[in-house]
Amino acid sequence: MTSDQVPGGPFDDPDYRAGVVELLALLSYGELSAVEQLNQDSQDAPDLRTKVAIQTMAASEWSHFVQLRDRLVELGEDPYAAMESFRTTFARFHGKTEPSDWLEGLLKAFVGDGLAADFYREIAAFLDADTRQLVLETMSQTGNSEFVVDQVREAIAADPRVAGRLALWGRRLMGEALSQAQMVVAERDVLTAVVVGAADRPGGFDLASIGRMFTRITEAHAQRMARLGLDA
Amino acid sequence: MTSDQVPGGPFDDPDYRAGVVELLALLSYGELSAVEQLNQDSQDAPDLRTKVAIQTMAASEWSHFVQLRDRLVELGEDPYAAMESFRTTFARFHGKTEPSDWLEGLLKAFVGDGLAADFYREIAAFLDADTRQLVLETMSQTGNSEFVVDQVREAIAADPRVAGRLALWGRRLMGEALSQAQMVVAERDVLTAVVVGAADRPGGFDLASIGRMFTRITEAHAQRMARLGLDA
Lengths: 232, 232
What we know:
Two copies of one chain form a homodimer. The first copy, chain A, is mostly helical. Chain A has a single domain (13-227), classed as Up-down Bundle (Ferritin), CATH 1.20.1260.10. Helix content of chain A is 75%, strand content 0%. Chain A has ten helices and no strands. Chain A has helices spanning 14-43, 48-74, 79-84, 87-96, 102-124, 129-140, 147-158, 161-187, 189-195, 207-227. In chain A, α1 (14-43) runs antiparallel to α2 (48-74) and α1 packs antiparallel against α5 (102-124). The N and C termini of chain A lie far apart (45 Å). The mean pLDDT of chain A is 90. Chain A binds chain B through residues 32, 35-36, 39, 42-43, 47-49, 51-52, 55, 59, 62-63, 66, 69, 80, 83-84, and chain B through 32, 35-36, 39, 42-43, 47-49, 51-52, 55, 59, 62-63, 66, 69, 80, 83-84.
């Protein structure tokens, strides 16, 4: 019996249920859109080995997508209809962060992979057992983006000016991600309540807890940028 | 112990070994190039559900690629160097069969998937036990292209003129595939010997046996086209 089938369980609360469905749809669309971005990046790969490394990342995100989509189906939802409502969010983000070359694409993949993992980790604690397990399982399969670290460090070693340009690009990526996240928070009460663990608290969520979550994610991003030799 | 480690086994013959390495490289590059073509196709998908169906095909071809590549590694080969030598073959094929719209892309994916399965089936009997098992395992995972049948039949029902155009396109795809295959036969003796089962026969392969294989594959193609409601 999964969490949604337990009488008196968290899914008896229609707001929690609606919030989890929105969350799974958001994560699904995010994974699918990561796959598409990586597919595009891999077209510009300088050699077969690197192309395959990028497609290996894409395959990992794809398996996350499949798990999340299948959970939406288990919950009796049409996954594509649920995902459709997040199309604009991701179109806005990708439209404003179109990589202008191979290195920018690599950095975007790396930053995106890291932000997703941080976000999954942040929200896991607040979810029912089955949704939490799903989120933690999908998150645990990251790590395929590690080859980016070498590639970026090599590019900086070859031309130190690259560091300044990529640092700027990293700030733009983070800024756009936060800006889209804030729009989602503003537009989606039930989703936000689930994400900050306020679904079962009277009075709902407070904006300060969201602000603290964004701060923690920004700090983790800065540490990742530092591993690449880049200022955040 | 795998076939290549058996003393006195088929891999003791340097021609057989070289032929199998070329075969695995050819199949790997073919699968990777199918993934890339499907990735491109999925960009034009009319809706999320169809996009995901195309990406599901791509994920299946990707898993074939990974198995074939890993076998090259097991054999002590650099898979990317081995694959590199087939770049021109696939670039020529894809350069001459660029789909001009969504339906042509779908048909190309369907035809390519079917031809690959036919080819795998043709050659399986002539391979050592491990290579045969690998080839049969990757082949058994096809079937994700079945949704193409519905899509093409619907498009023809909506506009019967589509059938003529797609039939022509199917003939062009098959013609180009055979033309590239004939070039591979002309250029690659050890590969061809393995593929037609002549690696262990004195006197090598005869062109007639290759002709018969191409004829059987062409007949299977015609049957697939008929299922779509198209003349071959």
